[in-house]
Amino acid sequence: MVTIKDCRRRLGPDVTFHCESFHVEPGEHVALWGPSGCGKTTMLNLIAGLLRPDSGVIEVDGSEIQDLSERQMDQFRGERFGFVFQTFNLLAPFTALQNVLLGMRFSDTRPTKEWKPRALDLLQRVGLQHRVHSKPNTLSVGEQQRVAIARALANKQKLILADEPTGSLDPKTSQGVMDLLLKLCSEEEVTLLLVTHETEIADRLERRFDCSGLVMDTTAEAPAFERNTA
Amino acid sequence: MSLWQIAWHYLWSRKLPTLLTVLSVALGVGLISAVHTLREETRRRFEEEGQAFDIVVGAKGSPLQLVLSSVYFLDRPTGNISYADFEHIRDHEDVAEAYPIGLGDTYRNYRIVGTVPELMEVRWVVDPISGRERIPFQLAEGRFFEEPLEAVVGSIVARNTGLRVGDTFTGTHGFEGGHVHDDHPYKVVGILETSGTPNDRAIFCNIEDIWLIHEEHDHDHHDETHNHDHDHDHSHDHDHHHHDHDHSHVHEFDKADHDAEDLEVTAVLVTLESPALRFTFMEYVMHETNVMAAVPVMEIQQLYSQILGTANTVLLSVAYLVVVVAALTVMIGLYLAILQRRRDLAIMRSLGASTMDIFGAVILEALLVTILGIVAGWFLGNVVSWGLGIYLTRTLGMAITAFDMSMHELRSFAIVAVFGLLAGILPAWQAYQTHVASDLTKP
Questions:
Q1: Phi, psi angle pair for B151, to nearest 5°
Q2: Contact status, residue B212 vs residue B251, Cβ threshold 8 Å
């Protein structure tokens, strides 16, 4: 589903991201794990096409994405990726239902008439059937993250990219959200790439990819996070 | 969910700034709308009145003054012409109808217009396509004048002076402060329906009453002050023979006792056999007689283009300036909103929105604000026009039809909409350049 080969991206004058090799099978749930600053999120952004590599190959769902134009990347992203962010990133002016609908609005993967039934179904599956018309600022943090998960799955995407999805949640809520995310990803048979620095969270996924050392301080010949924490 | 809906939700999410921006656009558009409405309506009303008569004939002087005084009752007459001149005009083969009018007296500064009863039956088509007619003399109550010293008063006069059918009043020579003809009281026999025309603020009587009153006034005046020079615009400063008058009852003026050269009229309202004859007839009057002719519609159009046209241009310029300022408000408001919304835009991009989707949504926001401003402004402008219309009808007898849309207005609104679109370009470009990864990671 995802393959990275010898991918480099310069992040600063002396800081470079470099991933020699990475591969995820379709339907696999993989944790990108490591300490802060190690390059987990950079790797996720490169896979999502939000950052472009300076060199190397990133292949997603059979397509090399590093050379796609901005327009092609927008379309590719809308059709194949779902995002779950640490800060939920719901759009404040819209209700829970509208936020999920927006996940479908920008891609052409399904007919318009299917949008609303699909959105309502997902909101029911995340236990928010009673809050479909609520605005994000009236939802609890756990509810907001559940809306974000519903939105990420709205298009039956092939790949869910989750960046520290439980980072803003208390342990109990965090566990509930992880249960839901893993359950829905299994039900929908989608590949999950989840960024986390928490070992307990990473251990709940099928596989853990250690990102330590992906971002290198080229002057010190050492992982950047080690310099940062020194 | 369409881009329109997305744009609308973002506008709705910041109601107060949106409301203020819409208001600023509405003020400019309202001003434009009001100026257009008032300009179109006043011109239409003036021209409709001007269409009533093909030619106005009067004493030599300013043609515009002649038209304003005799058709609109707005200015002092240019002077008087003899009744013989009137008869000469009336009997011309091109003339279909000729109505003499005699001005000079007022009642509480409202013109007393002496004329013939036939004028009360005048009507004319103002819109050849629909066949819509203007009937300026319709009675709200009572009847038209028939007997000597009977008067029909316009609706504004009735309202502002309290005159009712059966009441009596006396005219004043010239305006307030002049000689009061208290020995010849008029009796109100009818009140005109409001017509939105100058008739609303005039009093109509038989022209023979004017002759009668001024014959005796001049006679009395001669008794009191020999060779006193009048500075009045009325039609009868000529000498008259002494008569024995019994002031205890209403006198009747007998035209047969007078020479046509002795009687005067202020102006003659002329309807020709065909409007196409206007200029040839005017040429005839100008060269073959010692009086003056003017075409009302032409004079009014000249007045519009020369004086009111300039005033309208100035007002419209101010209005467009307000719109430009409003467009800047739209731009600044949206620009600041986009700066605050960079994260939202990045989220949309991460959901698959293209840069053109983002650009379009912001442009639509600008357009929506502008359209709302145009609608609100049109309403505001027409409410102002409507209010002014009520005021003008009450004071000047000029009705204004508000809540109408002219091509001029539509064109102006299209220009404002383009301003709105242009105002959206900078913020939209700002949004277009959203950098997804960095904007998503910002707190």
A1: -135, 150
A2: yes
Indicate yes or no: CB of B349 within 8 angstroms of CB of A107. Answer: no
Instruction: Sort strands B124-127 and B202-206 into parallel, antiparallel or unpaired.
Output: unpaired
**C-alpha count within 13 angstroms, C-beta hemisphere, residue A55:** 6
The CATH number of the domain covering residues in A2-217:
3.40.50.300
B10 touches chain A (CB under 8 A): yes
What is the C-alpha separation between A175 and A180, in angstroms, rounded? 9
Question: Could you read off the pLDDT of B230-251 as tens digits, one per residue?
Answer: 444 444 433 333 333 344 445 5
Tokens of B113: 């217009």
Residue A134, pLDDT score:
94
User: Which of A137-153 are b and which e, b meaning 16 or more Cβ less than 10 Å from the residue's Cβ?
Assistant: eebeebbbbbbbbbbbb
Whether chain B has a CB inside 8 Å of the CB on A86: the answer is: no
Find the CB nearest A93 among B9, B349, B354: B9
The CA dihedral of B212, B215, B220, B222, to the nearest 10 degrees, is 180
Spans of chain B below 70 pLDDT: 49-50, 176-177, 216-261, 395-399, 437-438, 441-443
Tell which of B8, B15, B350 to mutate to test the A interface (max A CBs under 10 Å): B350
Q: Render pLDDT for A111-139 as a digit per residue (tens, 0 to 9).
A: 888 888 989 998 988 888 899 999 999 99
Give phi and psi for B336, each to the nearest 5.
Answer: -65, -40
- Residue B168's beta-bridge partner residues? B187
Dist. CA A57–CA A62, nearest whole Å: 12
Q: Which of A105, A151, A163, A168 to mutate to test the interface with B (most CBs of B within 10 A)?
A: A105
Cα B220 to Cα B416: distance, rounded to the nearest angstrom: 66
Q: Express as a percent the part of chain A with pLDDT over 90.
A: 29
pLDDT digits (tens, 9 = 90+) for B179-199: 777 788 999 999 999 887 888
**Contact indicator for B203, B154 with CB cutoff of 8 Å:** yes
Contact between B1 and A106 using a beta-carbon 8 Å cutoff: no
**Predicted ipTM?**
0.79
Measured between beta carbons, the chain A residues lying within 8 angstroms of B344 are: 91-92
Nearest CA in chain A to B343: A89
